[in-house]
Amino acid sequence: MRAVRVHQYHADPMIDDIPEPKLEGPLDVIVKVGGAGVCRTDLHILEGQWAEAMCPDLPYVIGHENAGWVHEVGAGVTNVAVGDTVILHPQPSCGLCLPCRAGRDMQCTDAFFPGLSNNDGGMAEYLRTTARACVKLDPNTNPADVAALADAGITAYHAVRKAVPALYPGTTALVQGAGGLGHIGIQALAALTATRIVVVDRNPDALELARRIGAHDAVLADGGQVDAVLDLTDGRGADVVFDFVAEQGAENEAWAMTAPAGSLYVIGYGGELRIPTLDFVAGEKNVIGNIVGTYNDLAELMVLAQAGKVTLHTKQYPLDSALEALHDLDAGRVRGRAILVP
Q1: Domains in the chain: ranges and CATH
Q2: DSSP string of 159-225, one letter each residue
Q3: Statement: the pTM of the whole predicted model exceeds 0.85
Q4: pLDDT number for residue 163
C-alpha cells in the first residue's frame, strides 16, 4: 500500500510502498482509510519536536486524524463490523487503568498514538487501530468530510466543553486563531453556549469565515489586537480566552486579553508563556492546558457534526500530494483543514 513516512527529521517525508497492516490482537481493527487530516502537529513531528517524547522508530507512517471503513476485525471485536463507517479516536486506550475508569482516556497509562508514537498512522491506504478507538457513523457519511474531527475537532471541543460553566449569557469568549482548530472551536462555542464570541486572526479570509460560522466580532491581528479587544470589552478582556496559536508572542497577548478572574485555555503550542506571579494573584486568573479529548468528546462532537452544527471547512488532496498539502499548511495557504484522500 501507499503511505507517507518520516525517514528523518528536518526533511520532507516520503511516499513509500509498504505492506498492509495485519491484525495483532483480538480487539484490533484494520480500517480502510477514507480521509486523513493534515495537522500542524505533523509539521512539528517533521521538525523533531515529538521525537524525545514519543521515541518512534524511523521510518514510520504519520497521520493521527483518521476516518474510513472497517476492513477487518479481531476475534474479540463486537462494537463494529466489516463495512461500517467509522471515525477513530486518535489515542486508543486500555479501558482498565484509573484515568480510563474516570473517563480521562486521553491520559490512559497504557495508550498508544498512531502517527505520533511508535505506531504507524493513517496517511496510508490502511491503518491498524483498536475497537476502543472506533466511533460508528451514519453509513452515508463521507469519511473525508469528518476525518479532522478525530483530533483537531475533539481538541477544540474538549477545551470548549470544559469552559461551558464559565460561559453563561453576558460573558465573552475570545478565540485566538481561526484556522484548523479555531474554526471548530467557534462552532462548538456557538452550539453549546450563549456567550459573545470574539475572534482574533491575522488573516482577513479567516476572519470572514469566523463571522459566517458564529463569531459576533472579528479583530485583525495587526499589532493592535490587544487594545482592540480591550475596547470591545470595556477594558476588561474576555472571560475565557482560547489560544489556538500560542507561539511567536501570541501566547503572551492571549494572557493580556484575559479578564480578571478569567481563564486562558492553551491549546496551541510552540511558544513560551511568561507571566509575573503577581498577575496570577492580583488578577485571580487561571491558565488551563488542553490535550486531545476523550472518546465521549468525540462521540458528542459527531452528534453535532451529523446535525450540521459543526462543519469542517476542508481542502482535499490525493495521498500522493501529501507533500503539497504539508507545504500549503506550513505556508498558511489552507483555510480550515487539509485532508488526504487515498
Answers
A1: 2-151+293-341 (3.90.180.10), 154-289 (3.40.50.720)
A2: HHHHHGGG--TT-EEEEE--STTHHHHHHHHHHH---EEEEEES-HHHHHHHHHTT-SEEEE-SS-H
A3: yes
A4: 98
